Amino acid sequence: MSTQLTLKPLIATPxxxxxxxxxxxxxxxEAIWLLGIVAAAxxxxxxxxxxxxxxxxxxxxxRLWVLGGGLAFPLVVLALLFGYSTVRxxxxxxxxxxxxxxxxxxAHGWWWEVRYRGPDGADVVSANELRLPVGRPVRLAxxxxxxxxxxxxxxxxxxxxMVPGRINHLALVAQRAGIYRGQCAEFCGVAHARxxxxxxxxxxxxxxxxxxxxxxxxxxxxxxxxxxxxxxxxQSGCAACHTVRGASVGATLAPDLTHVxxxxxxxxxxxxxxxGAMRAWITGxxxxxxxxxxxxxxxxxxETLAALAEYLEGLR
Length: 316
What we know:
The protein is of the alpha+beta class. It contains six helices and twelve strands. A five-stranded mixed beta sheet has the order 3-2-1-5-8. It has a five-stranded mixed beta sheet with strand order 4-10-9-6-7, with helices on one face. It is elongated.
C-alpha cells in the first residue's frame, strides 16, 4: 500500500517560539525580542559613532570615550539586562500551584507516554498527544525510560531534559486553544527526528469531557469484521506490547491503544491519523519510521489486515 499520505503536513504552520500560546513561552519570547532589539540598537549606535569618528578632523577626548563609551555605557546596559533576565528567570522557574493539573510525560524510544490523573483518582494513560485546558495551571512531570530525551513545545514553553531515573518539572499555563507541535530536542537514536508530539489545547469544559471519555475502557467492536480484528489483535502478539483497556491490559512496551483512533497522528507524529493511515502504519512501520521497535506486517493477507485495521480504527 502506498504511504504517500505521510507527506501531508500534520500541522499547517511550523512551531515558532515567536508565536507564544503559553505563559512560559510568552516570557521567553519577550526576552528574545528585548535582547534582540537592544543588541541591534547598540550595533547601530556603535556604527554611527564609528562613521562620525572617521569624518572628524579634530582630536577626540580619549579619556571621555574610554570611560564613558568603554566602561560606563556597557556597565549600565549590561546591569539593566542582567536585572531584567534575573527577574524573568525567577518567573520562569516559579513552581506551579498546588492545585495545578499534574501530567506525567515519559519519553521512550521513540514515542511519548502521557499520564493524567483521572476523575476517580486513577491514572489515565495516553500516548503521543498532550491535551491541556486553556487558562489552567499545569505541572508537567518529565522523565525518560531509556536514554536522555528533551521535551520541547516551542509555543508553550522552553526545552526541558528528560533523564532516566529523574523527574524534571515544567510549569505552564496554555493561553490559546489550538494544536501545537512538540519535538524531542535531544538526539536519542535512529528515529529521533520522527519523535514528535501534538499538544492540543482545549476549552476547560471540553478538556474535562475528553478526560472523562479517555478514562473509560475501549468500546467493544460492533461489526463482525472488527470483532475478528480484536481476536487477531489478542492472538497475533499485538497485546504483548500494546494495552487496550477493557480488552487486554498490562503491556507497557509500546503505546496504549485504548483510544488510538481519536488521536491526531500515528507513530509519534509520523503520519496523520486519517483514512487508510492505520493500514499504512501496520504494513509499513519500518518504511515510515526506520528503527521503530514494531516490525512491519506487510505479509498479512488483505482480509486479515482489513479486520485488524477496522478494529483499531474503532478505538475512540
